[in-house]
Protein 1
Amino acid sequence: MKFNTRTIHAGQKPEETSGAVMPPVFFTSTYAQEAPNRHKGHEYARVTNPTRTALEHLLAGLEEATHAFAFASGCAAMDALLKMLRPGDHVIATNDLYGGSYRLFTQVFEPYGIRFSFVDMSSDENVRNAFTSRTRMLWIETPTNPLLNIVDISALAEIAAGHKAVTVVDNTFASPALQQPLLLGADAVVHSTTKYIGGHSDLIGGAVCTSHDEICDNLAFQTKTTGAIPGPMDCYLALRGVKTLALRVQRSCENARELANFLADHPDVGDVRYPGFTAHPGHHIASRQMNDFGGMVSFSLKKDDKQLAERFMSSTTIFTLAESLGGVESLVSHPASMTHASIPKKVREAAGLRDSLIRLSVGIEDADDLKADIEAALSKTLA
Ligand SMILES: *Cc1c(COP(=O)(O)O)cnc(C)c1O
């Protein structure tokens, strides 16, 4: 099946007793057994719930994985993957990454003795040089957040495999509609389903998709043992939302392309970061590993000033000033004080993230209205 069909049908079948085309929301904690350990495949809802199973089958289908594991949040999904590591193990991670990932790595796992190196992955050489005899995991985010740099997944996964390290890709920004890392050699994909997969800003959720036997066994054990699972209602919402993923992402990409060009041509706008520009240093790799360039655009004003940037973000009316991304509605955010505030200013600036950067998550509204909103906010800001 092709991708657009899989977003609707992968692993789905009508419910057995009624024929309902959508799985019921199974609000239950336990399941009746005929005799001890003789049951219909479900024992206790921390371990499995049919609504969650339906979502997991669909997500596995989207990433062409044998298995998917749904979690209560993207952070819980990352936490489960990192718990495969042991004290002394070393992880190489992208230097420009989601602030919550950085916080999880440095404030939860470093104190347990896991070591992290944050590396500019636009150069393969930097990554090659960061490996040690204890490196167990390569953690890639691409496009990176919020600078929208591009990392070559297949080249780096090959280097990692040579060191017997697993490659994990946080595919939240691209979504499986644009990029399928397992097909490029990654061992596991992590998602915040809160973003493009859910798509309607009405849930918090996460997932790991993988065909790697050891990771599958470990995650099955962990969902059962540590229990950071999503409830059935959130699974239902994710399942309902994901069915329009292909259409939503296509429209977001079209709108983002139009806005990126509009911003680049605007006399009051400075640097615009968008991997669809041929001058973007990662454009070539993005053209190869992605189906389109995504719905995210970051930029700064020509007058590169934090206060002016903040005034701009408070002046839009269609773009809502909010954290998060990947919903049907357009959002504007200030990474330095919002999503990335947990990264020290010095570390942020070393990675190129300045206090004046503005990040857009472009939704599926009419592009003309989005441009008019930005134009009006720029006039108001600079008046
Ligand atoms: C939001 C986000 C996360 C964390 O997911 P939650 O669902 O908010 O816990 C992880 N990675 C990226 C790239 C994100 O944007």
Note: Residues 3 and 62 are 7 Å apart (CA to CA).
Protein 2
Amino acid sequence: MPLHDVPRRDERPLSVNPFLGPANPLGDMTEAPPKHRLPDAPMAPATAYQLVHDELMLDGNARLNLATFVTTWMEPEAGLLMAECRDKNMIDKDEYPRTAELERRCVSMLADLWHAPDPSVAVGCSTTGSSEACMLAGMALKRRWARRNGDRYPSRDARPNLVMGVNVQVCWEKFCTFWEVEARQVPMEGDRFHLDARAAAAMCDENTIGVVGVMGSTFDGSYEPVADLCAALDGLQERTGLDVPVHVDGASGAMIAPFLDDDLVWDFRLPRVTSINTSGHKYGLVYPGVGWALWRDADALPEELVFRVNYLGGDMPTFALNFSRPGAQVVAQYYTFLRLGRDGYRAVQQAARDVARGLAGRIGETDDFRLLTRGDELPVFAFTTAPGVTAFDVFDVSRRMRENGWLVPAYTFPANRQDLSVLRVVCRNGFSEDLADLFAEDLTRLLPDLRRQPRPLTEDRNAATGFHH
Ligand SMILES: *Cc1c(COP(=O)(O)O)cnc(C)c1O
């Protein structure tokens, strides 16, 4: 069984058009390939290509997907480099020493960008995305805590916990489940939709392996107050002696804040921040498949978690869940760093934020909607229906916008704001002012219809909105 739902298994074989066959147009039609069983016989590559290509036409248009944070457009040159490197396995450091070197340069660049005290000794690695990076960072926190508490764990059954906001991305719940750590989640309260520094410190005890601060929240695009969090934990240490480290989940924001929010201190400048992750494939501007995890120095990453692979006759440290992994994404990350530089990243991220603010402003001006965030932290904003609106809800808006090809997720907030449902728009590179205008026009055109509804009409909320990230 595949892990995703297959509603009803359709046993009809694939239909092959006579035009798809090579020299003999009937050649590939003689045995229609089954869908769920490995076909008995091979077929011509052109036929196989066309069958797969045609089926994929019905996937949504990635550029109109305002639900995802993940890069949907890169330059042709980046595509070319990735094609040139698609046969390289990241783990083969010895066979592909230059790819390994580019990975190392990317780590140094990020360490410098995030103000590691000495970028030359900061340690880090590429991953398949932030989820893997968060697993690694969480494992390092757990191992450091276990070392400090060898007298109580595992022999005396102390149960490690990790403190975070209820708004964290699902990868943190996965981490806690997979690695048997208790997830202690600070609920939302009123108009606070992310972690509160004092509430987080209050949840810490001698079994807390760390606190996660998110730059920025996937629920509404807001930055969590990392500096306040560190200050609250400094206070905790003064009062109780507990020294609790902070991991910053910068999946999106660690590639926004360094370019657009110079004055905001959230990174390794704060001594309590021991590790940071980001998704190269989000605002790092690379196609899906790359993330980064960095530790402020070698002390922050327990040596026993690091494995060694052969590298030019010597050995090279690696820290990863996977063994084999594509090298192309790492090369594309290095290309993008080189191509854009700081000024280029600043320009791209500023453009995304300008689009987000502009579009949020227009939506906020209508009487129909109320903004929760304004797109001025991550280039992402969340909005809900205005208090007096009873004819339609956010799920109706999501469903109707889908008719125009726009994917805008609608979802309900977690504790203690399950009463609140919102729409979220993620503005990425490639979602231009012009596309934002078209989006706003489509939304405006729908409103008279929606206002005339007798009541909210969406029966299947999940079908209306799709998955949110
Ligand atoms: C996207 C995201 C993740 C997961 O990252 P992937 O790169 O998709 O694995 C984790 N945390 C936050 C805050 C995110 O936005």
Note: The chain has twelve helices and 13 strands.
